[in-house]
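Today's session is about reading a structure prediction critically. Students often jump straight to the picture, but the first step is always the sequence itself: look for stretches that repeat, for charged clusters, for runs of hydrophobic residues. Only then move on to the predicted structure, which in these notes is written as discrete structure tokens rather than atom positions. Here is the chain we will use throughout the hour.
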Amino acid sequence: MPAADLYYYYNIEVMESSLTSELLQCAICLGELDNAYALPCLHSFCSPCLQGHIGVSQKRVSKTLNLKRFPCPTCRVWINSPVKGVADFPKDFRVVKMKDALKEWKRRGNHQRIVLCEMCDEDCDSKVEHFCADCQKHLCSLCIRDHNSTSVLSTHIVISLSSMQTDNESKKCSVHLHESIKYHCQTCSLGICVKCIRETHKIHQIFDLDYQSKHKKMEMRNCMDQLHTQNSLLMEVMFNLNSIEGHIRGQHEHTKLQIRKHSHRMINHVYKEQNRLLCEADVHYQQRYEDINSRKEDCQKYIYHVTELQTRLESLLRVQDADTVVKNNNSLVKKSQDTELIEKYSKELVDVPKCAHFMSNNFGKIGHIISRDEETAKPSCADLHQKYCPPDRIQTFENDLKVTQKTKLMHDSTCIADPVLSYASDDNPVFPVARLLCQIGDRGSKLYQLSLPYGIAFTEDVRLVVAENGTGRIQVYTKEGLFLRVVPLPTSCPRSLSLLRENQVVFTDENEKCLKILDVDTSQLFSVSAEHMEKTVSFPFGVASLSDGRFVVSDMIYETVSITTSTGITEKQLGEDNPSNTYDNPSYLATDAEDNIFVSDSGNHKIKVYDKHGRFLFQFGNDGVKEGHLRYPKGIAVDKTGRIYVADAGNDRVVVFSRLGFFLTVLADKNYGLVRPTGLAYSPTGLLAVSMPDRHEVFVYQLENSIPRQL
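Below is the predicted structure for this chain, in token form.
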């Protein structure tokens, strides 16, 4: 057979092998498809292989339904198991037609053979004379020159088709033209005949071509067998990996399904508990409402009775007839001074009803829907009531309230005082009063001028520290507003400021996204490790310090509030125990003497309070302009008595709340020159500083009645 025919049929065999391995191979047994059946996903497998795979990998879908499924060995799509076996699937006639087409192609190749140059762009009339074994291309005489002249292709094995002979033909010796070349001289790298050995190649290294060719072919066949074995092993490994992948994917989907089911059960349970608690609250409210209405009706009757007596007395006073006055005087005065009537008023109206208590213990049950251990359980309203309002204080409050109300009813019905304020026994006003002490700043970058003073704080020796966000520096003033010193921070952009210890302050740096500590006396600057903070804090905004050296940091990007160690490692995120307790633009922070944490949840218009372990205590505030309402609250400060001062930026005022979050008074508003107050700083000496970045100013107030009296 000519060499061109040999390589032509070699190409057909290669193509046949490629089609068999890619399209006609069973993915289970890795052999040629035999009696193939097609799955709904259009992948085909041998009948015995598919039956064995179904028996091993099928799983029951439901405990009640007799339904099983198995994954496709190739794409891992789950398919319903057939009832009657693989015979329920259709036969793949595409495989049969493909085999027939391949046989017909090979048959036609025995009669027709057209070999063209595979490198020419257009039809080439030149005779194909060479074949590149590396490129697997037939080449004409023109293309072979370009092929050999290219450095990358010059090392390829190129076979000359014209020089190849049939199996029974052989090359002739170039010296002895009638002798066939049967040997190869390795010394001269030349094919030689028998006569050449005797004449000029006696002492050279010579070997027999036929023997050497058979030996090399045997080595190549062994290599081919090894490669085939390795390929089979790799295909088996790939099949196992595909199976493991499908198993992992199935486990993942099953896990997600179980999570969804568990979540739905929890949500349904929470909704049921919510409905039950709402019904209990409605019943409790209805009982209180009916009790109060009954008392109001009785009180209205007594008011009518007293008003009637008062009217009759006024009419009698206008009468000039002395006899009439004497006759009616005794009965009216007796009714007015009736002791039994006064005792009846005191008993039925003055007694503080149970529904008027500050907080009811019944509310302690609300919120305990999901069970948890005692250490991580959130305190209930009853716990806060016990902590901040001990029973002796409540009893004193009720006794004082009874005495005060009874005195007012008996002696001065037109001047009834607020019962909440009646328990104070001292002569000082209950609420703090602000007196402007000094005004600091003006827009600019010079000394005595300020640019966006967001953060402020008082040191132990009552010096005011102001952080300028616009110019990147910190200025120090006396409490009277006299300039002391300036600390430039060329690489920092300070935002919030808080007293750390003695004369050290900690502030958030927007440029380097970390916390920094400044010694006000020496101007030494220390950075809290940023590598720990940047993992959990993207944009540090507010900062406050705890007595044990830990920090509380708010993040404006992630909208989180975190408790960190002194080195910046996050210990806990506030509110993570309750997914519904989310933040919207959390900004400024503060702590009190008991290390309770106060968070200004500006976007939700609330102040949220946590203990030092990060457990939620309570919250107060709501969007609005009325008393007790807040609008985009910012800075927070807490005095020695536990009163909470809040910069109500949206309403241009500073408001005061009790230690339990009940509204007390408006300390200062726009009538005092406040415009969007942002930062607050309190000094134990009774000073309160308010920063206004929009006006680039800081007001310092002296607070009256903010320091508890020494009894």
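Discussion point for the tutorial: The mean pLDDT is 79.
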